[in-house]
Amino acid sequence: MQESRSKKHHYLPRYFLKGFTNPNGSFFVYDKQTRKIFKSSPDNSFFENNLNTVTLKHGDSDFIEKMYSNMEGKFWKSLDTIRDSTYQMGIGDLDKMNLYLFLAILHWRLPKNMALVESLSKRFFTGDNDFKYITLKSKTNKNVPEEIVDEFRSSEGFKKSAKLLIPFINFQGNEWYESVANWTFSYTGDNARWHMIGDSPILTEGIYDEDPKKFLDRFMFPVSGSVMLINNGTHITPKELPEAFLLQFNTALVHKAERFVACPNKDLLEVIIRYYYNYVSNDMTHLIFKELFSYLDDPNPSY
Fold first, then answer.
1. Has residue 302 been placed in a domain?
2. Euclidean distance between CA atoms 133 and 136, whole angstroms
3. 47-56, 166-175, 228-237: which range is least confident on average?
4. Would the pTM of this model clear 0.90, i.e. be above it?
5. Among residues 298, 199, 211, which one has the least CA distance to residue 257?
6. Which of 7, 16, 139, 224 could form a disulfide bond with 83, CB atoms 3.0-4.6 angstroms apart?
7. Is 11 helix (H, G, I), strand (E, B) or coil?
């Protein structure tokens, strides 16, 4: 009997999204395209049909989706540990490493990065030092003819599957570990889920977004509705961050989103949307990320 092929492919994993739901297991989603809010759930949000489907010699395959599922299962224990942690607890190196790999994989599977993935896929098997960790060999361990390499590299299957390979570029040196050592985890004071989630949830200054080795140099990421990860290059004291920082963080999530953002609280979502469109109507969206990251340098900015 032929195994059924999946169709509904989440670019934000459902297990991860459960950290942003309300007690009923749902959240409210805002669609920037239609400017409408609707109630939804992790099962029915942040996915695209056949996002990871490729056409092979014997028909369509969802092997990429299956590989994501297999990898994700190895991250959930660490994710749960971090989501259940408190300000007084320390996060172990293994849990941080798993979260780092989860972030690297997440970044390159987002639909908005597919064009960049395809561009980077052309650098594999070319002698490029950054991508030498993957090689092509024949069954007899001999070099593959260049015309075969070109055919393989230009295939739809490889262009899509490259997003599974690119994240591992970060583990060729020790820079990733040095970066992780400076991570700060920030917690909502009342343990309530005030952090929103969007379809492009890794917030950066935009300088290295297209660099597979540096895009996690300085960023913020909502691990859950109540836990935030901050990498500022140096350890910071999250207690110094004012309440206005959370407002700015959620506003930045809306701004960076291609289309969808979600929040467990509809009233909060409506407030954030109104705040965001104040920037839009005043032609000031270019200040959103500048003001957000300024909190890391000065917890009490003058504006």
1. no
2. 10
3. 228-237
4. yes
5. 199
6. 224
7. coil
